[in-house]
Every structure is written in structure tokens, then in C-alpha cells.
Amino acid sequence: MPLKQDPAPRRGAFVDFSPEASCLEISGFGLRYADKPALRDLTLRVPRHRVTAFIGPSGCGKSTLLRALNRLHDLNEDVRREGEIRLEGQEIHAPEVAVAELRRRVGMVFQAPNPFPMSIYDNVAFGLRLQGGLRKRRIDDIVEWSLRSAALWDEVKDRLQASAWALSGGQQQRLVIARTLAVEPEVLLLDEPASALDPISTLKVEELIRNLKSSLTLVLVTHNMQQAARVSDYTAFLQDGELVEYASTDTLFTNPRLARTENYITGRMA
Amino acid sequence: MHDSPASPLLRRRLRQGRDRLATALITAGGIGVIAAVMAIGVFLFVEVLPLFWHGASTAPQVNVDTLWLPQSYPGLDEPVYRWEPALPEGDPGPRFSLAPLAWGTLEAAAWSLVVAVPLALGAAAHSALFMSRRLRAAIKPTLELMEALPGVVIGFLAGLVLAPWLEAHLGLGLTLLLLVPPGVVLGGALWSRLPGRLRRRLPLGWSALWLLPWLLLLWSLAKWLAPWLEGWWFDGDLRAWLAVHLGLDYVSRNAIIVGMAMGFAVMPTIYALAEDALSGVPTSLAEGAQALGATRWQTLCRVVLPAAAPGVFSAVMIGAGRAVGETMIVLIASGNTALMTASPLDGLRSLAASIAIELPEAAPGGTHYRVLLLAALLLFLFTFLVNTLAEVVRGRLRRRYRRMGDSP
Amino acid sequence: MSLTWRRPGRARLPRGEGPWAWLAAGSVSLSLLLLALLLGLLAVRGLGTFWPSEVAQLTLTDGSTVAGRPVKTSPLPDGEGRERLYRTDNRDLNGDIWTWIPVDDIEREAYPRDLVVLERSRWSAFIGRLVAWRPADGEQREGAAAWEALQASLAEHRRQRDTIERLKERRLLPLARRLEAEGEVPALVASLEDVQARIRALRAAMKGDLVVMESVDGRRIRQPVEEIMRARRPNAMSSVDRFLAWGHRVWRFLSEGPRAGNVEDGVWPAIFGTILMVMLMSLLVTPFGVLAAVYLNEVAHQGRLTRLVRIGVRNLAGVPSIVYGVFGLGVFVYGIGGQIDRWFFEQTLPSPTFGTGGLLWSSLTLALLTLPVVIVATEEGLSRIPDRQREGALALGATRLEMLTRVVLPMAMPAMLTGVILAVARAAGEVAPLMLVGVAKLAPQVPLDGEFPYLHLERKFMHLGYHIFDTAFHGNDVQAAMPIVYGSALLLVLVILVLNLTAIFLRHHLRSRHGSLSRY
């Protein structure tokens, strides 16, 4: 089957959000790593209390975009940025925004589980203790609530003081999610959260994602299109650091507007 | 701990402030510490400068010529190198010639490398390619522990045990030197003639251990052969023969003793670095060569060694740097006579040993003090350059390995 | 397609690996053998020199009699026969404690059980026979009774010496200090005089007892008992006694100060000095080394400059220790120390207080010397921590300081410990720089005592490594110093080996722990 060609120019990325309230607004955002462009002129809105998935081939910039939402690129001095990202209407790069507070509001879960070398309890309480000013009882309650929310409570309630590194990979990833939930973020960024896990753990994590969207805005990066189709409400397709198409997940997977998108999701890459 | 509503904002401010302060402190402290360490070179340079910056009043008695060229002194026919910094009253003046000290330093380092390099590289090659994994896990840390042996202990054993022993058993020493290498090769040849079952009992991977009794056997053989050899070739007394035929006077504490002791001290450094370089070569390379039917030794020479050559080179450089700067061994085992002779049987005096002995007595700010500081500056520059060179070469090697490892 | 492919004659496969492979194997064996020889020599001589060996009584061909312990045998200078060195002691009779005896001249060798070795506080030991014990007031005893009486009175003397020491320490010194502080208060003066009188009385009670000794060649001496520290009959000792005596000697070596030109008794001040200096050094080097490593690895911009600085720091680890010593002498001792003296100790100038080598300057110099070790080890530990740990902490809203103190530094702890232990091991073995900045052959005062400010940073101190060097090469009688030198060398090597083994263990522990993390 020959590759389809797009008649239209590349910039066809938009979606009608009129019924949704947006949580994150990205406009004209671009990022350069030491003069190598990684993201170019992205504009999209992430709706509140929905799951939005970023898909695309490796190196397309989807993880870079996710890390930008959390300002993790601040650690790297070689990065230049342009454009804006607004969280609930506020520009996140504004000088009056404290980056630590921003990162508390925008939680992030990474590809490989990264529990700290402490007990399970201490891992979940880590963020709470940073904020300070909480009584021990209250911390206990929040730890339990977070572990329950991450569907891990029943598995670990008898060994909260055991090392987090003794958990299995899937449990570690849910622990990391619980740890993030404990600081009550508004947005949860998930960077291929299931790529290092076995199928059963993956299903558990996906179920968790679906349950969390009632109270959180979730952004999911994945290279697994079935996963995106299973859990997300909206899907953005990125390629070469540009947004190619952004639509509701149903539309994007069943009726993509652009041929490039269709080629990608049907497995015919240029 | 309290849950007051106003506190979170305050607390956040506090956390931010603390973070900024700490970052500033770490930056300042880090730069300060590094600057303090780096200040050594600057200090030496500044202190040495007045030697050559002639303010007429201080009138230092040295310049580049007096330090490095032979000088004529009254009462002597030819110009000579003399290091006589502290002389009794009435003498024409102290003589500062760094040449014999530099010569002694290099001579000691050279002899120790003559001892250490073959031993270290042989050991590195064996443990990287031949030795069984289990034995290697025990032997490598053991040999690396040798590196930690304090110089003063090695020097003391060299000066008070090895030097008198060798002086009394010169013939045996020479016999050992002549006998052990061919003896080990002979052992290998005998091994390959052994019946298969016995040979499997004594695998090559464990030869480092089962060669030990063989070495002891060679030792007793040498003990038996030594008088015979001395009688046959050297008229029964090697020391007298050396004096008569070669005009060499055997001094108890000489360059050979220093070389052996310091070689022993430097060997583990070279071994550890060279072994890392050799065993770091991606195994795919060596396996490729062995798949073509090369023996392991051929693999080593044709494939592994060329790939790891920069690492081996830098190992030797770092060993040389250590040998040049080692103080206590030379101080104890060398006799500390500032001579400029090529004979390995004479004593020597090194820059580092001179500093250790003389600096506490030298008047601060005086010419003697500054000349000794110049010696320290030379040591500093030499080792710093040698180590930088080694580090650059090693960094390049590391990148090369990474490339080789990446390509499928 | 047809291919005529002729197999070339099969090359002769080499049998085995060839000579070079065996030479390589031989060099491992040789290195191991040399290491084993060195450690074995140290262990045997270091522990063996304290063994109470038997005393030989020799009858020579010319009819004379000698008693002593054999030390070594070597060929006679003329090559005919051999001679043996005996430690004959009795410096007060012979003028020397050593005697060389040609082996051929020995007619008879015996080990009589009644030979007595007296260790004395003056002169050297005495080897001979006990003739009589004569108390100041009482009856003279001879034979076996004399031996028993001597042992009893030695025990009594020891008790009295202990009492005097206790009195001095608990009563005399505090009183003297109070007198100094409060002035001549009559009550104090009275009690001071009372204590002094008691000590004098005790001392007087010890005087007067005598033993009459006879050397094997029949010369007699009268030996005051108060100068005898121990009396033994080594030839009559059972192996258990011998072992106990050996243990006692080793304990004295570890716990007592040197005597008689550093060749008798122990090395406790040197052990103490080494430990104190190394502890001070690690207090200095740990925070600064970690600080510099954290800056280099976590804070500094990872550009070309940082890479250069890192190479520079690494290379400083290869700069000879003597160069650091020169820096310490020039900057710390003459520079800073001289300035401190001019500011605060002007009244004692020109005799320097801080402007000369001392404990503080030695610790600082060695801290500088070992700084690269700590920095490199800590940096290695920091760079092994995966970035996702740092990002995990940041993503929870931690500031950089919180990320460092709560996640990164605890994880790098084993690496830091390894670095500090390696630094301590290196510092414990370094002697050359100390010769410039503050080690002493025999320090009259320990740098730590009960006198304000308790820790005297400006004092010189003794060091095990330097003690080896000094006693072995600057003493009057090298042969007599050998037990102390070998003992010190063994002790130093043991300490350093234990420290290094701990570091190796820690490093291994660290690797295996991170190995378990990186599986996911």
C-alpha cells in the first residue's frame, strides 16, 4: 500500500474543545537543546479532568514536552525556550512562580520507577514532609489515602516500614504514583509509566489512570497506541518536534484528518 | 508542628530562601576548596620567583647556569656539579647545583620502572586474559592493597633487610635474575608435556597460585647454583670482580636497591590501571580474534593490546609520576649522596629526599630555601603534566571503548 | 556454479600459549610471593621479637663464659667460618650489650634454668645469677628463697609505684592547679605539703632493698631493687608462662611510652599521635571534600571549565606528598602560623608558638593532601546515582537543597565513607610531609591532656611512621631498636590494611546495592 500524502500544509493541529475547560494552555512553545531544536511552535490546550495522551515516534519530542510542563529543563543550562505555558491561566515561567511549588502542583511519574531508598511509608510521606507543618496523624491519614488511591494499600499495608526497593516493578510504579498523589497535585504527568512493566501491572496502572481522572488532569506520554486508545480522552500526535494532529482519541484513531497521522497509527512510517 | 493557615506561604518562602543560601554557600565553598588545592602551584611559583628576579640587595647566588651547568670552583681543575647547600664557615660559599638531584630523581624513577613495568604489565595481562574469574576476584584487590603499603615501611625493609642481604648475597641475586625468567618458561613447557588429567588439575587460569611452589623450587636451585656461577664467571667473588673488571664500587644502598623497593611500591599502581584498561576492551573484539583460531596470547598482542595501548601508556605514566615523587623510600634506601654517575651500584640523592631533609633547617626566604622550593615546583610541574597527559589519553580511550561497545 | 576450493595445508596449531604467557603468569606469582614475603617478615619479626627466648650460656675455647641471646649469624669478614651475634646485655659491666662470637670458638652451649634476666630502669637488662636478696631491714636470703623474696618485693614495689602515680594524678596535680588559680591559700598549701610528704615517705620505703647478682663470668654487682622492673628466668619458663610474658610485652609495647632513646618499652604516644592527627584531618577533610564534590557534580555548570577543574583535582592526587609538605611549611607554618604568633603570642617571640610545626598544621596539610581522594570518591558516588532519583525528588516539589540532603547525599553516603577511609589510610602512612610540618622524634607532652584548652593544636606530636624512620636510622644502636621498629611497622601496616579492607568492603556493598536498583 503506498504512503498517503497530505494535501494540506503541516499545521493542522487543533481540536474543538468548546465543551471543555482547559487546565494547561500551551501557545507557541518551542525548545532548543544547545542550538538543536527539540520542540517547535506548539499550541494546544489540555482539558481539565481528562486524560490527554501524547503519541509519536521516538525522538518526536513528546517526553521533552512533558518535562517542560514540569520545568524539569531548568536543570539543564543549555536549553533555550520560547512561547508560553499557562497552568490555570498563569504563565509557569513567570518570575514570581516558585518552581518547587509548581512541581508540587504538577506531579510527574517517570518511565522507570524511581522510589527513594527509604521505607514505603517514608517514600509517600516525602513530599508532605517537605511542605512541613503537618501532624503525624495527618501524615498517616494522607499516606493511607494516597496508597489507597494508587490501589496499593492492600498489598503493602502490613509492611509500610519495609524498603521500597523490595517491591516489584509494578508496585514500585504505583508507589511512585501514590507518592505523587500525596502532595495533592492538580496535574499528573505520566512519562510512559508502563513501559518497564509486565502486562498485568500495566493493566493495573491503566485502570488507576482511568480512576484518577475524576479529580485530576492527566497527561500521558506513550509509545503504545493501544494504551493511548484505551485510557485517553484526547490524543496529540507529535512528529519531529511539531504537533501534527490533536483530536479526541476516537476521532484520531478512527478518522484522522491528516495522512501522516493515519500512516503512523496504521504502522506505515515514512 | 501546627496547622495554621498563614504558615504554608511563609514556609515556602523560607524553603526557597534556604535553598538559595545553600546553593550560594556550596558554590562559594566548592570554588574555595578547589582554589585552595590549586593554590599549591601558585604559591611555589611566587616563592621561587625572587631567585631569578634580581633585586640587587638580596643578591641570590644562583641563576639558571649555576643550577644546571657544571661550575668551576677554586681548587678544582674541571667544572663540576656540586650540591653543597650548607657548608662550614670559611668556605667560599654554598653550591647549588640541582643537576645531580634531578639526575638522582630520574635515575631512581627509571630503575623502579625497569622493575615495575615488566612485572605490572605481565601481571595485568595475565589477570585480564588468562586468570580464572574467581581467582581474579581475590588477586586483584590483594595486589591493589599493596599500593597502600606505606613508603616508610617499604623503605625500612629495603634499607635494613634487602640492602644488607643483597650485599652479602650478590651472586645469588644475579643468579635469581638470570634463572627465574627461563625457569618460569621451562615450567610452562613442562606443563604442556604433562598428561591431560594432571594438566586439568593445574589449569592455566590458576597458574598464578601453583607457580608459587615452582618459584620456591627455582629459589633453592639458584641458591645451589650461585656459588658455582660466581666461581665460574666471576673468580669466586662478584663484588671484587665488578670492582676489578668494570671499575664499579658496590655501595650497600644504591640505585638498584632503590629501584627494587620503589618498583615494588609503584608496581600495584601500574598494574591496577593497566588491568582496568586491558579488561575494559570489549570482549566482542577478543572473541572475534579467538574465533579465528588465535591463541589468547596472540589475541592479546594483536587485538587487545593495540586497543588498550593508551590506557597502558597512561598507567605507566602515572607510575612514573609516583616514582618521581616518592620520598621516604629514596630517603631511606639510597644513601643520599648527590652524585652524577650512571652506575646503578652507586648511591643517589633525589629532589624529594633533599627537600625532606634540608627544608626544615633552611632559613625561610633564604637562597637555600628558595632553591628547595624550586625543586618542589619542578616535582609539582612534572607530576602534574605527566598526570594530565595520562588523564587526557585515558579519557580518549574511554570514549573509544564506548563507541566500540555501542556499534553492534 | 562450481568452485574448486582447495583447503590449504593445516597450519601447525601452537601447543599452549608460548613463553610470554608463562612469563606473565610468573609475574603475578612473583608479585604475590614478594608481598607474602614482606608481610610474613613483618609478622614474624614484629611479633617474634617480643618472645622471651632462652638465654644461652656459652663456654668458649679460651675458657671464658658468656651468657646471652643469639640474634643472628653471618660469615666472618675473612670468609673462614661464621660468627654469631649475642645480646649479652650487662652494659654496666661490659660497656656494650652486644658480643660477636666466632661459632668455632664455642666449646659448649647450655641453657641453665637458674639464669635470671633483670629488666632495669637504668643501664640495660642484666643477665646472670641471683646470689642473695638483702632487704633494708631484715634477714638476707639465698637460693630459691631469695628468688621468691625478690618476686614478692617486686610486686610490692609495683603496688607502691602505682600508689604514688595515683597520688600524683588525683591529689597532687589538682592541688597544684588550684594553687595556681586561687593563689597561696594556706589550707591548700597545707594539704599539698601533706600529699608531698606521703609521696616522699612511700619513695623512702622503697629504697634500701638490694639483690646481689653475679654474671656468668663471676663478676658481682649489688642491684637496688627499686631499679628493677621485672625479673624472669626465661630458661625455666613453661610455654604458657612464655606466652603470658609475650602478651604482657606486646601490651606494654602498645600501651607505654618509649624509654632509653626510644628503643625500649612502647610506642603509645606515637599511636596516640597518629590517631589524633588522623582524626583531626578527617574532621577537616570530610566536609570540605564533600562540599567540593557536591559543587562539581550537582551545582556547577557541566561545561568545559568544570571538566578541566575535575581533571585538575584528579591530578592533584598524583602530586608528590612532599610538595604538599612544602606548601604546608611555607603557607601554614611560616605564613599563617607566623602571623598568628605576631598577633597573639607576641610576648613569647622569638620562640614560636604556632609559627613552627605542630598538630594543627600537620592535620591541615594532610587534609589538603587527601582532599582529592575524598572529592574523587564522593563524585564517583554522586555520579552513580541515577538522574531519575533527583527528578523524582524535584517532581514532588523539593528544592535543590532538599533534594540533596534528603535523597542524593544519603545515597552517596557509602561512597563518601569509602573516600574518607581511603583518605585516612593514606594519611596514616604518610611521613614525608610530616617531617616538614610538625612531627617530633620524642614529644615531651602529648597534645591532649587535662590542662586547658585540653587539645593543644600547636604542640608537636609523635607519629608511628616517623617513629619507624627515626628509630631505625637515627638511633645510636640500630640493632637494639629493631624490636620496636618491626613492631611499629607491623602495627602501621595492619592499621592501613584494615582501613583499606573496610573501604573495599564498603565499595563492594555500594555497588551491589545500586545493582539491585538498576534492574528495573
Tags for this model:
heterotrimer, A: 270 residues, alpha/beta, Rossmann fold, 4-stranded antiparallel β-sheet, 10 helices, 10 strands, 34% helix, B: 408 residues, mainly alpha, MetI-like fold, 2 strands, 1% strand, flat
Average predicted confidence as pLDDT of chain A: 82
- The span between the termini of chain B is 58 Å
According to CATH, what is the class of chain A? Alpha Beta
Count of alpha/pi helices of chain A: 10
Largest interface, Cβ cutoff 8 Å? B-C, 105 and 94 residues
User: What's the β-strand tally of chain B?
Assistant: 2
Count of separate structural domains of chain A: 1
Q: What is the rounded Rg of chain A? A: 19 Å
Q: Can you summarize the main beta sheet of chain A?
A: 6 strands, mixed
> Span from first to last CA of chain A?
12 Å
Q: Give the helices and strands of chain A as they follow along the chain.
A: EEEHEEHEHHHHEHEHEEHH
Domains of chain B (count):
3
Provide a concise account of the structure shown.
The complex is a heterotrimer of chains A (270), B (408) and C (520). Chain A has 270 residues and is α/β, with parallel strands linked by helices.
Describe it for me?
- The complex is a heterotrimer of chains A (about 270), B (about 400) and C (about 525).
- Chain A is an alpha/beta fold.
- Chain A has a single domain, classed as Rossmann fold, CATH 3.40.50.300.
- Chain A has 10 helices and 10 strands.
- The longest helix of chain A is centred in the middle third of the chain and has 14 residues.
- Chain A is globular and about 55 Å long.
- The two termini of chain A are about 10 Å apart.
- The relative contact order of chain A is 0.19.
- Chain B has about 400 residues and is mainly α.
- Chain B folds into 3 domains: about 45 residues; about 40 residues, no CATH class; about 220 residues, MetI-like (MetI-like fold).
- In chain B, about 75% of the residues lie in helices and about 0% in strands.
- Chain B has 15 helices and 2 strands.
- A two-stranded antiparallel sheet of chain B has the order 1-2.
- In chain B, helix 5 crosses helix 6.
- Chain B is flat, with a radius of gyration of 28 Å.
- The N terminus of chain B is likely disordered.
- Among the domains of chain C are: about 55 residues, Thrombin, subunit H, CATH 2.40.10; about 250 residues, MetI-like fold (Orthogonal Bundle), CATH 1.10.3720.
- The N terminus and C terminus of chain C are likely disordered.
- Chain C is globular, with a radius of gyration of 32 Å.
- In chain C, about 60% of the residues lie in helices and about 15% in strands.
- In chain C, about 40% of the residues are buried.
- Chain C is α+β, with helices and mostly antiparallel strands and about 525 residues long.
- In chain C, strands 6, 7, 8, 9, 10 and 11 form a 6-stranded antiparallel β-sheet that branches.
- Classes of the chains: A alpha/beta (about 270), B mainly alpha (about 400), C alpha+beta (about 525).
- Chains in contact: A-B, A-C, B-C.
- At the B-C interface, helix 1, helix 3, helix 4, helix 5 and helix 6 of B face helix 1, helix 6, helix 7, helix 8 and helix 9 of C.
